[in-house]
Amino acid sequence: MIRNCRLSVLAATILLLALSNSVSAKNYYSSGDLVMNKTISAWFDRSIDVYGVRLLVAGDVGGQSKVPDEWAKKTAQTFKLLMDRDAPGIDRDAQKRMIKTLLGESGWHSGRPAGQRIAYGGGSSYSPDPLSDQGRLSYAGLEALQDSMALDDMVWYRNVDSSFNGDDDINEILEHVLHTLHRFGVRGAVEGSTDALNMEVETSDVAQTALYLAMREAYDNGVFDIEGYGGDINKEDAWPVMLKEYQYLLTFGMWNFGAAFWENGSLSPEWNDNSTTPEGIFENNPLGYALFETYFSPVISKPSISALRLIFQDGDQGVSGYQPTSEEEQESEGNSSLEEPINGEIHSGIGNLRGWAISNNGIDRVEIFIDGKYMYDAPYGGLRVDVEAGFPTVDGSLYSGYSLAFGYADLGAGQHTVRAVAYDSLGNSTEQSSTFNVVIYDKNFINSNEVVDLSGSTVSASGDEVMINGASIGQQGYNLKLKWRTAEQGFEVMEIQ
């Protein structure tokens, strides 16, 4: 039997040095400037990156005027209000996972970042209509854009169906921004949400998901009317639209926003007046209530009505208040590194779990998670001259290390993941993780009275490999292959026979 392994007991022969995997922390709550961007198709000429979503802003094209800059900034500010990490009840770790999902860094649409399209009036306001199959081909780059990004709904400036007042603008923005966040961000944030909120009927059977069952209960109980979506609850092709609209209506009900923003406080019959409050939803759509509290409430923040009405006023008045992230804010979350265990490597026996973390705000604690479960806080404050040399202007960088002895064999054989989450004094966090394999000997621990004897072994070498045949470890014979690793500046045991 051949096994890969890192062997710590042959100290005279093997030198193991940890390979640092230092990564600068990314500020996921970054909001950029509105910039000219001619690379995002002939339809859009500007963009804003905000909290993981790229806003694509339509220009002067197709016989239609460009979207005003201020409307684009109002949309961006709305995204910020909906992802306020300091809002009551927000789970910051889950919300950061939501932003990573939006960015396409991880999650079900990995590699396809989320975008929010913003245009003027409606599709038919342009010639040709960029939302039609034929019209889309007339705008250079538009087809490729839609293939490369996760895109759902449009936000329309002066929507052709609007009554052009402030509250109607709020409805327009919130409905379609929530569609984007619900589909491409909330799904993937809280543990279990990827399956629970699946609405991709083209690739999955969603009939037993928590989202579908909640929507179906709302339909069966007369809360959610689907006449506007074809009227057939069993038509699977219509489910994506039904599920999308249901999530928006559920959110408005849980926030009691219908009373404020719907005309005369009602959207009946599409959404029953008996379910425009959390209490009404709890009574008439309990599965929806539980769905919202479990997956939506921890990551989507409820904006204040007064804040929204300052931004969106009648006659296209009001100002966004949007501010890009400053350089100081970009750097405020600090840096960190998880140096051991080494990502992608093999570990066994007893070793170290170590790394470092710094922040301009000071580090409060470093939490260690093993295979997704919190285990303990790592001792923090170890001497790190190398980190101070790299970050001489950051207070505390000299004593920024964390380290503890770690029994890899106790994890059991197979693949494992360690995640280290460092929190600064303001509650900001940065995290690093390492996924590695553990190989266990027949015994988890070789005692001091069990002899390691190389005197009867034979050694041969070829290139950068060394073979040791007949090594005796704990009264068992082994043939070992060692290979030079430049990154570690030492030999690593690659095979045991």
Number of strands: 20
**In percent, how helical is the residue content?**
25-40%
Distance between the termini: 6 Å
Globular, elongated, flat, extended or rod-shaped: what is the shape? Answer: elongated
Q: Report strand order across the widest sheet.
A: 1-7-9-13-12
User: How many H/I helical runs?
Assistant: 14
Strand count, sense and closure of the main sheet?
5 strands, antiparallel
Structurally, the number of domains stands at: 2
Mean pLDDT across residues: 86
Structural class comes to alpha+beta
Beta-strand residue fraction: 15-25%
List segments where confidence is low: pLDDT < 50 over at least 5 consecutive residues. 1-25
User: How many whole angstroms does the radius of gyration measure?
Assistant: 28 Å
Give a brief rundown of this model.
The protein is of the alpha+beta class and 497 residues long. The chain has helices spanning 69-82, 92-103, 133-136, 142-148, 166-186, 193-196, 210-220, 239-254, 258-261, 278-284, 286-296, 305-311, 327-331, 385-390; strands at residues 23-24, 35-36, 44-50, 53-58, 115-120, 154-157, 335-340, 346-347, 350-358, 363-370, 373-377, 380-382, 401-407, 414-424, 429-438, 452-453, 458-462, 465-473, 476-485, 490-496.
General description of the model:
The protein is of the alpha+beta class. The chain folds into two domains: 35-325, no CATH class; 328-438, Sandwich (Immunoglobulin-like), CATH 2.60.40.650. It has 14 helices and 20 strands. The protein has helices spanning 69-82, 92-103, 133-136, 142-148, 166-186, 193-196, 210-220, 239-254, 258-261, 278-284, 286-296, 305-311, 327-331, 385-390; strands at 23-24, 35-36, 44-50, 53-58, 115-120, 154-157, 335-340, 346-347, 350-358, 363-370, 373-377, 380-382, 401-407, 414-424, 429-438, 452-453, 458-462, 465-473, 476-485, 490-496. The strands form four sheets. The chain has a five-stranded antiparallel beta sheet, with no helix packed on it. Strands 2-3-4-5-6 form a five-stranded mixed beta sheet. The chain has a five-stranded mixed beta sheet with strand order 8-15-14-10-11, with no helix packed on it. It starts with 22 loop residues before the first strand and ends with a strand. The relative contact order is 0.13.
